[in-house]
Amino acid sequence: MGEEAIRFGILGCAEIARKVSRAISLSPNATLYAIGSRSLEKASKFAASNGFPAHAKVYGSYEAVLDDPDVDAVYVPLPTSLHLHWAVLAAQKKKHLLLEKPVALNVSELDQILEACESNGLQYMDATMWMHHPRTHNMFHFLSDPHHFGRLQSVHATASYRVSPYFLENDIRVKPDLDGLGTLGDTGWYCVRAILWAANYELPKTARALDKPTYNEAGVILACGASLSWEDDKVATFYCSFLSDIAMDINAMGTKGSLRVHDYVIPNKEKEATFSTSSNSDFVELSIGWAPNPCVHTTHTDLPQEALMVKEFSSLVGAIKFSNSKAEEKWPTISRKTQLVIDAVKASIDNGLQPVQIKD
């Protein structure tokens, strides 16, 4: 690893941190430098089982990671209710921030996190991995093509996975004091991001939750859906759930074409991903088929999407650290828009499924 590798600290030993630890190891411009947990024993076990190099620092507290002067950036996979405190403290300690989604309980909390990063000249990025897959770039290239896709009319996104009884009793994502947004903050985050991405990050004007959200006994959302609308004729819907079979779909329809992808959150294959498009199609004679038929496109990548995320984040951090560049504003802007829509959907759920205006 070269001298300019960005040195990562990780706060906590969440399951998702195992995946991101591997991503940091795979990234050519990053290195695993420190891990902190509430107990030294837990941090030590995590480092030993997740490929941390022998020189990595192991700490029995989160504070110790933030106090290490050699840590450049931190990845924070803590429960959402803890993000505000630890993300702001990380920024105050001059650590660049890769923050697990959902990034905050509401946009007010996120604004405090973003202000702390901005005022300290730090790079912020949320850990929405699929955004960094080269397939995502290729899909957006099609959506931006006025001749083959035209103008966006409608998007439908899903993100769900069926969880175990143990999950429903014990996981932090079903605990109101830890991750009170439930599936809306977890799988719903992907849906909202997909819709915003397809709309080139133009915020919808209205969100309305669909009947009927499903809750657990503690009042945490286990399944829900919503519709979104813009001032023009664009519309979108999404469904997210902890109770349905695994689904990760985007269906985007334009005036001249359509795009479909069935594994956008996590590709079926780590280094190969597909999507299908149709363009200017019509029915053949007797309406027994299409012409032209939909096309399947395959994108190959040497690094998995989570490693590409770390690589891009580390490049931005490196530009600040070594070249006195300014933080890239794209990622905090996208993150905030996603949170704004999540907030509006949650408000609609809480207000008896009434429509809620989205204001930037």
UniProtKB/TrEMBL annotation:
<dbReference type="Pfam" id="PF01408">
    <property type="entry name" value="GFO_IDH_MocA"/>
</dbReference>
<protein>
    <recommendedName>
        <fullName>Gfo/Idh/MocA-like oxidoreductase N-terminal domain-containing protein</fullName>
    </recommendedName>
</protein>
<feature type="domain" description="Gfo/Idh/MocA-like oxidoreductase N-terminal">
    <location>
        <begin position="6"/>
        <end position="125"/>
    </location>
</feature>
<dbReference type="InterPro" id="IPR055170">
    <property type="entry name" value="GFO_IDH_MocA-like_dom"/>
</dbReference>
<dbReference type="GO" id="GO:0000166">
    <property type="term" value="F:nucleotide binding"/>
</dbReference>
<feature type="domain" description="GFO/IDH/MocA-like oxidoreductase">
    <location>
        <begin position="148"/>
        <end position="260"/>
    </location>
</feature>
<comment type="similarity">
    <text>Belongs to the Gfo/Idh/MocA family.</text>
</comment>
<dbReference type="InterPro" id="IPR036291">
    <property type="entry name" value="NAD(P)-bd_dom_sf"/>
</dbReference>
<dbReference type="InterPro" id="IPR000683">
    <property type="entry name" value="Gfo/Idh/MocA-like_OxRdtase_N"/>
</dbReference>
<dbReference type="Pfam" id="PF22725">
    <property type="entry name" value="GFO_IDH_MocA_C3"/>
</dbReference>
